[in-house]
Amino acid sequence: MSGQVGRLAVVGLGPADARWLTPEAASVLEAANALYGYGPYLDRVPMRPGQSRHRTDNREESARAAAALEQAASGANVAVVSGGDPGVFAMAAAVCAEIEAGPPAWRGLDIAIVPGITAMLAVAARVGAPIGHDFCALSLSDNLKPWEVIERRLDAAASAGFVIALYNPASRARPWQLGAAFARLERHLAASTPVVFGRAVGRADEHVEITTLGAARAVAADMATLIIIGSPQTRVLVRPGRMPLVYTPRAAAGANA
Ligand code: SAH
């Protein structure tokens, strides 16, 4: 295989099954000689004879990226899979970091990032248009950054009027962070601010709940949940016999449009 320029694609699988996988992602996965990723994500990719699979633990991102780059450097066509979009709190940045730290030859590889639907978009679509105006996304995980940084960013985002999407809100190892984040946000936002919990959206066990900041229960969230906190402009339209529509108007209060 040597002599050939290796290729490494970082592929977004979307938040659920193949309905939310792009045709581009499907064809890149099909063409790869080797797939790397967290086991449950690899399980979503149809098996193809002759294609090797390298399952790694969720926490071993840099080792996984390095192993994939090494195989690509030997001339192989490698795909690393991520849930959602690979550029959002996922493998694309891990691969870039390994390239930066790794041997010069890795900079000569053909690297492609293949986008996917990120969880925030899937959850937003389920309830209406909560991110119809300015928004930001934060990971609530303090594995890779100090909690004080997260608090500062929550303060800044809420006081600036952004709708906020929270990825990684809770896990068994991080049980208190979401409650602390809600308490922090209540310093800036009314208790009536709409809050959306979207769990396992697009999967068989999907559960979506619309509540308020004052009533939100942090214990209702787990690793498969994404939370959207409204801005002071976000509205909830109640409808007879149907889920309310949550939306943030496209014009901010005070706009001279
Ligand atoms: N790269 C992924 C995000 C990885 S971080 C993406 O773009 O979506 C993992 C977090 O994503 C989870 O803790 C959860 O907050 C969110 N998430 C992933 N899939 C989800 C789904 N189907 N429904 C709701 N949230 C999801």
Which stretches of 5+ consecutive residues score pLDDT under 50? none
- DSSP strand (E) fraction? 25-35%
Distance between the termini: 60 Å
**Tell me, what's the shape?**
elongated
* Major sheet size, sense and barrel closure: 5 strands, parallel
Mean pLDDT, all residues: 95
User: How many helices in DSSP terms?
Assistant: 7
Q: How would you describe this structure to a colleague?
A:
- With 257 residues, the protein is an alpha/beta fold.
- The chain folds into two domains: 7-117, Cobalt-precorrin-4 Transmethylase, domain 1 (3-Layer(aba) Sandwich); 120-247, Tetrapyrrole methylase, C-terminal domain (Methyltransferase, Cobalt-precorrin-4 Transmethylase, Domain 2).
- 27% of the residues lie in helices and 26% in strands.
- It has a five-stranded parallel β-sheet, with helices on both faces.
- β2, α2 (39-42) and β3 form a beta-alpha-beta unit.
- The longest helix is centred in the N-terminal third of the chain and has 13 residues, at 61-73.
- It is elongated.
- The mean pLDDT is 95.
